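Q: I'm writing up a methods section and want to include an example of the input and output format. Could you take the sequence below and give the corresponding predicted structure tokens, formatted cleanly so I can copy it straight into the document?
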Amino acid sequence: MAQFTVYRNKSARSKSTFPLLVDAQSDLLEDLQTRVVIPLSKAAPLTRRPVRELMPIVPFDGEAYVLMTPELAGVARADLGPAVGTLAEHRDAILAAMDFLLTGF
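A: Here is the clean output for your methods example:
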């Protein structure tokens, strides 16, 4: 499991809103049985413009997704769906969003 890997959301309760999850946890913590993830939501259904620094829009698999940083969550590794790609090229935007969530700037 690598940081910034994108997984399909297996949760029946939330996968329609958040079809994908991006692993935000450091690779140094590989031995933990949980991963910190940020849900991704398709950009089109959002009616309000997201705060760009907190919820950047990132392209993935030909579509635009909003990084739903305020929905940051811990998920058991066993509950992650299949890996479908990576957002490693958007590392700076993801880390900046997490910094903004935790520090306010």
